[in-house]
Design goal:
It contains nine helices and nine strands. It is α/β, with parallel strands linked by helices. The chain has a single domain, classed as Spore Coat Polysaccharide Biosynthesis Protein SpsA, Chain A. A seven-stranded mixed β-sheet has the order 3-2-1-4-7-5-8, sandwiched between helices. A two-stranded parallel sheet has the order 6-9.
């Protein structure tokens, strides 16, 4: 199955270069195409992305994460569509694992995994590892039977289109839980606990780890129970 990688990017000139370099280096022939969705950026995001051979850059003037994800979905040609953030660093063999999982299980419609953090202290990395293993995974993946992390997931394009794609009324919080819940109605949504990518801690560092933890948790519960996020407003940290 051909794999398209979609990267939503708003004012990401500082991060997108390293993201693409890692992606191209580690994925190699496991990727069919890379699409950067310039989401109404006012900086050099597009210019930086266009320096990388083979990277397709499209423009989505309507700012918003779900709108950028949807634009990438409609532009993608692969049977599988992977979504990562512009500050994500892919680890070796990740996309090879993706192909193996989808080949092994025909009912699988979505595959996701957690992230670790770069540019933080050792104790913060340990705290994040503990969160995924002792709180998030048991609560979300085992109890709810589905979980998607927006910075690191792959889904079948046909199934994403079947459910109508992404809910563009959701601005930011809860969008990954929404897509996980709707995909779960069609097939299996699997969470690979040990297959991490690396991500920037900028949002947690800017807003505070505890505050962010509660905010993500409350929006997860709100999406599950009421099928809508608790918070619509969010801040961009660049």
């Amino acid at each position: 199955m051909r794999l398209s990688v979609v990267i939503p990017a708003y004012n990401e000139e500082k991060y997108i270069g390293a993201c693409l370099e890692k992606l191209i280096t580690e994925a190699g022939e496991d990727i069919f195409e890379i699409i950067v969705v310039d989401n109404a950026s006012t900086d050099r995001t597009s210019a930086v992305a266009k320096k990388f051979k083979g990277v397709k850059v499209i423009r989505e003037e309507r700012k918003g994460l779900t709108r950028a994800r949807q634009a990438g979905l409609l532009a993608a040609k692969g049977e599988l569509v992977a979504y990562i953030d512009a500050d994500t660093h892919i680890k070796p063999e990740w996309f090879h694992k993706v192909h193996k999982e989808f080949e092994r299980n025909k009912r699988l419609v979505c595959l996701s995994a957690p992230y670790s953090l770069y540019d933080v202290s050792k104790w913060k990395r340990v705290a994040m590892w503990s969160y995924w293993n002792f709180l998030a995974y048991p609560t979300y993946a085992l109890l709810m039977r589905y979980m998607v992390l927006g910075a690191n997931f792959v889904a079948k394009r046909s199934v994403l289109l079947k459910i109508g794609g992404f809910d563009e009324s959701i601005e930011f919080y809860g969008e990954d839980t929404d897509i996980a819940r709707r995909l779960h109605k069609i097939g299996k949504v699997k969470f690979l606990r040990k297959s991490m990518v690396d991500s920037s801690p900028r949002r947690m560092e800017a807003e505070g780890w505890l505050r962010m933890g509660f905010k993500y948790g409350f929006n997860f519960v709100s999406e599950i129970l009421m099928h809508k996020p608790l918070h619509q407003e969010y801040k961009d940290h660049r």
